[in-house]
Amino acid sequence: MQSKNYVKLSVLSLILITALAGCGCGCKKKEEIKVEEQPAEPVVATIPYDKPENASPITGLACDNYQKRSFGVMYSGSNDARPYWKNLDKADFVLEMPHRMHNEPRLMGIFQCDVPNEIGPMRSGRIDHMSVADSLGAVFVTWGKSIVAKSAMDKEFADNLEVGNGTKSSDGTRAGYIDSSIKFYSANSAYADLNGIIGMSKDKGYSGDNIFEGFKHQGEIAMEERPDYGMVDVKFDTSSYRIKYQYDKETNSYKRFHKGEPSKDMISGEQYAPKNIIGIIAKRDSWLAEKDYVAEGLLDPWDGVPQEKVESNQYPNMQLGDPWFDTKFEGDAKFYMNGQEYKGTWKREKGQNKPFKFYYEDGSEVHFVSGQIWMHVLPHGQKVGYEDAEEYAERLEDEAAEGTEVQ
Questions:
Q1: Residues 247-282, buried b or exposed e (16+ Cβ, 10 A)?
Q2: For the purposes of burial, counting CB atoms within 10 Å of the CB of 372, is it exposed (0-12), middle (13-18) or buried (19 or more)?
Q3: 3-state DSSP assignment of residue 183
Q4: pTM of the shown model
Q5: CB atoms within 10 A of CB 62
Q6: What are the pLDDT digits (tens) for 357-384?
Q7: Which domain holds residue 133?
Q8: pLDDT tens across 193-219, in order?
Q9: What is the CATH number of the domain that holds 86?
Q10: Which helix (H) or strand (E) holds 321?
C-alpha cells in the first residue's frame, strides 16, 4: 500500500567459476565475479500529484498569488491571546517556537495565497523567527523587536517591516491597529492588515515577486488506506502549552487541540487542521556576550548594538542554522501527513537566505501533502510524540483494566 514503508530487497548471487589450468596439473584457480549492488528504491512511496499551473510553492495548492511575495507575521503565543487569533487558518505555513527561556512560544504565520485584513494578535520579533521567514523568502513583519533583532532588521539582513498602532502605507491603507473590542492581560490586542503591509513593502522598495523555490508535494492517500486513528502530541515542558493533533480520516488532516479543547480561529470559527506537521527538537543555547561568534564564521550579532545593551541569557537561541549564532545546520525531524509518522532530518546551508530542506531517513526529499504546514520547534529535553491506532487500542485495554479514565 502506498501509505506503508517498504524496502525492495535485491538478492545477489555470488558465482564462483573454477577453471582447470594446465594439462593434467590438478591445480584449480578460483575467479570471483563481482556484481554491483543495485541501489534500493526509496522507502517512502510518493503519491502521484497533479500540480496546478498556479500552485503555491509553499502549499502546492492552486493560488492566485502564487507568484507574489509572502509575508511572515508574528503572532502572540500567550495562552490568553490564543482565543483571539485571527486568520491563522489562512496562513500557508505556521511556525510555533519558544521566544524566551521560560518556553512560552510565539507563532509566525506565512501568508502568500490569502490577504486577510485582520492578522494577530501580533507581538515582537526574534532572530530565530526572522531566520525562518527568510528561509521561505518572506518579508518579516513584527510589532516591536528585541535589541538584537532590531540590529539585524535595521541592517536589512532580511527584508522586514515593523508595524504599530496607526501604521499606514503611503497610499493611506491601514497596516497596524489596536482592536479595542478585545482585552487580554499579556499584551495589547495588536493586529495587522496585510493590504497595508503589502503597501509598506512596496514603499520600502522590496521585491513583490516570490523568491522561494518551493517544497516538494504529493497527493493524498486513498480513503480506504487511511488509518482510523493517529495522535500527534507536542509536549512542551510547560503543560499549559501542550498541543495535540488528532488525525481526521475524512479530511486527511490533523485537528488541533489545546488543553483538551478544539483550537479554533476567531474569524472563521473553524478548528485548525493542518495537512502536514513538522516536529523538530533543536539544541537551545543562550546568547553570550563574551562569545566570539565571528571567530566561528558567523555574522557579528552585536554589530550596531550599544555595549550596555549586549545581552546574555535573556532570549533562547534555537540551533536552526541562522547566520548569527548557530553552528548547527542539520538535525532530526519528524513528519506527520497522510495519517503516518515519518522520521528524517532537516538541513540548511550555512549563510543568509538559505531554505530548509527536509529528508526522510532513506535520504530522499520529503514530499508534503498539498495544504497547510505547521512546524513545531521545541528545545532539547522536550518531545513530539505519536500514538497510532494499535498503540491506542492497547492503551484503552490497559486503562480499562486499571479502571482509569481514557484521555
A1: beeeebbbbbbbeeeebbbbbeeebbbbbbbbbbbb
A2: buried
A3: coil
A4: 0.85
A5: 14
A6: 999 999 999 999 999 999 999 988 789 9
A7: 71-392
A8: 999 999 999 999 999 999 999 999 999
A9: 3.50.90.10
A10: none
